[in-house]
Amino acid sequence: MPHALSGTMAISETALKNTALMAFEEINKKGGGLGRPLEAVVVDPASNWPLFAEKPCQLISQDRCAVTFGCWTSVSRKSVLPVYEELNGLLFYPVQYEGEELTKNVFYTGAAPNQQAIPAVEYLMGKGGGNAKRWVLLGTDYVYPRTTNKILRAFLKSKGVADKDIDESDTPFGLSDYQTIVANIKKFAAGGRTAVVSTINADSNVPFHKELGNAGLKAKDVPVVAFSVGEEALRGIDTKPLVGHLAAWNYFMSRSVRRCTARPSRRPAASRSRWTSRTTTCTSR
Q1: In whole angstroms, what is the distance from residue 120 CA to residue 150 CA?
Q2: Is 233 within 8 Å of 205 (Cβ atoms)?
Q3: What is the spatial distance between Cα 123 and Cα 126, in angstroms, rounded to a whole number?
Q4: Which terminus of the chain is less hemmed in, N or C, by CB atoms within 10 Å?
Q5: What pLDDT score was predicted for residue 253?
């Protein structure tokens, strides 16, 4: 499992690693796979993209791993992809992504923009989402946010949204000061009914959402929908000022909605607590 357990991505990827270990343990209790126990090999690429490219070679060639579960960002996935193709390895990629890639060596288990981003934007365009007319496309500066925002810009223009009503900006990984960015959002929103589409990743979600609350940016005025923030990332934030802002995922463990095709986890707390705390929730991509 090549998951970043340190650095900027640890806030997101640690829960994925723990969830996979819990699943392996449950499978082994039932006899394993093909009558053999599953053995997990965990490596930490430390949120370092070149290091991500090195780890699969170790896992496939040295540790003889039959399959790997790992990565979060598309830049980490693209860093490891040449190794999987060269060595004919198999990666289960657990997160939403930008699409526009297909290989026999990767199972893409998360949503593409047509399954996540576009439906969310359509919702915000409608009456229930506030009839947004102007759009802020805000993301971390790497391939997934840039490509998703390119797709969304084309979609918005196909719906008659003018270029002047779309504001797009990218921020570096690990950015901790969002005062200027949120101030610019408020200024842009003065020009008409505005919604924010956030593809901010990793630990930067914490200061961004905190600044939304500090600046008094209410959902009733400027709704924000996030595509890459899990429930765990917001655990340490005072969410009272954020009520009404949105996140779009395939499944939320903490929600029980009949219309969802995936049901909340019914595992007893004892089976989860070995790998996660009793209050840990897992968000499905």
Answers
A1: 15
A2: yes
A3: 5
A4: C
A5: 57
Is residue 92 within 8 Å of 23, Cβ to Cβ? no
Question: Is 209 in contact with 234 (CB distance < 8 Å)?
Answer: yes
The tokens of 35 are what?
């009558």
Q: For 159-196, what is each residue's pLDDT tens digit?
A: 999 999 999 999 999 999 999 999 999 999 999 999 99
**Backbone phi, then psi, for 188, in 5-degree steps?**
-65, -40
Q: What is the DSSP string of 189-249?
A: HTTSSEEEEEE--GGGHHHHHHHHHHTT--TTTS-EEESS--TGGGTTS--GGGTT-EE--
* CA atoms 274, 49, 174, 114: torsion sign: negative
| Predicted model pTM | 0.85
Residue 255 corresponds to which amino acid? R
What the block records as the tokens of 107 is 């199972």
CA angle 271, 277, 281 (to 5 degrees): 90
What is the sign of the dihedral through the CA atoms of 269, 270, 273 and 275? negative
Task: Write the DSSP string, 131-161.
Answer: ---EEEEEEESSHHHHHHHHHHHHHHHHTT-
Half-sphere exposure of 29 (CA within 13 A, CB side): 7
